[in-house]
Amino acid sequence: MLKTMPDTARLPRRLALAIALAAPLAAISLHLLSALLSGLLIHALVRKLAPHLERHLSTQDARLAVLALLAISLVAAAALLVVGMLAFFHGDAGSLSALMQKMAEVLESSRSRLPEWIDAALPADSTALQAAAAAWLREHAGELQLFGKESMRGLVHSLLGMVIGALLALRETDAHGRRGPLLEALAGHAGDFDHAFRQIVFAQARIAAINATITGVYLMAGLPAFGIHLPLAKTLVALTFIAGLLPIVGNLISNLVIVILSLAHSPDLALVSLAFLTLIHKFEYFLNARIVGRRIHAHAWELLAAMLVMEAAFGLPGLILAPIYYAFLKIVSERERW
């Protein structure tokens, strides 16, 4: 009786598929999600912007020009951020004592509207507030140090990911020789994941624009209708759009800033802003599922279920990666005819 020979032609494809499915999850487990996403973002931007220059330059030169513009933009943004922080913390308005004094004034003006049990727990004045802040910093020094270390590591990973994404974007223009079946299959899956990422990113840009529009109506039309004018309203709308390009996390950042500025006006307004922004935040889940689902041909419940499962398994990084990973699974399932 003859033994059945193994199908060696399918082995590289199956191995490549297993690697492709496991690699994004491994990026989360190894804390490399920031590197993965930043590299994909640079790669996607180069592929999106370079064709506009290819009418006047070669493909290689066009991609180099786009990378140079992106590098200049990143350096300029970082320089502006550093200068702004230095100007804030070295100025009178940015000193710690001035900040504590302002917070104490907000708390003092809010005491009459707060319940007694909350009022009793609040510091009496700016001196007590500074003492409480110093005590909290001493108690959580280790956690803050760890947070700073992790943030710095994430920044370094993001920069390295950008460099890798840039090199891959340039390498695509080079003629390369014949690859083995495993590398060929891996390259195909990498292209599918890149396609899924671009679908989600451009959909997220649309969601961020909708978010910023709704927030702008609230800050610049809704509140002024009741005689309330928050400072820096236009800046807050711009921040909402820029931060909204980051799924979930971006909204948390912009919402926190809006609630703090609302608290400076009154605790009641802070509660109203928090309730409004929470509704918008929850609405984004369904908006995300609908817009992204339309791009990847998935129902809203599918994407919501994927986000729920990934968040339960990997926490916030899983929630961020869920739409991209599910879009990749849809592409793979269609390619494999599952």
DSSP, total strands? 0
Instruction: Tell me the radius of gyration.
Output: 25 Å
Average of the residue pLDDT scores: 75
Task: Give helix % range.
Answer: over 70%
Q: pLDDT below 50 for ≥5 consecutive residues: which ranges? A: 1-5
Approximately how much beta-strand content do the residues carry? under 5%
| Largest β-sheet summary | none
Tell me, briefly, the overall form. Answer: globular
Distance between the termini: 33 Å
Whole-number total of structural domains: 2
Helical stretch tally = 13
SS class: mainly alpha
SSE ordering: HHHHHHHHHHHHH
What does the secondary structure layout of this molecule look like, with pairings?
Blueprint: H1 10-29, H2 33-53, H3 59-90, H4 96-110, H5 116-121, H6 126-139, H7 141-171, H8 181-225, H9 233-244, H10 249-265, H11 267-295, H12 300-314, H13 316-336
Helix pairs in contact: 1-8, 1-13, 2-3, 2-7, 2-8, 4-6, 8-9, 8-11, 8-13, 9-10, 10-11, 11-12, 12-13
Compact summary:
The protein is mainly alpha-helical and 338 residues long. The protein has helices at 10-29, 33-53, 59-90, 96-110, 116-121, 126-139, 141-171, 181-225, 233-244, 249-265, 267-295, 300-314, 316-336.
Question: Can you give a write-up of this model?
Answer:
With 338 residues, the chain is mainly α. The protein folds into two domains: 140 residues, no CATH class; 146 residues, no CATH class. Helices cover 82% and strands 0% of the residues. Helix 8 packs antiparallel against helix 11, helix 8 crosses helix 13 and helix 9 runs antiparallel to helix 10. The protein starts with 9 loop residues before the first helix and ends with a helix. The N terminus is likely disordered.
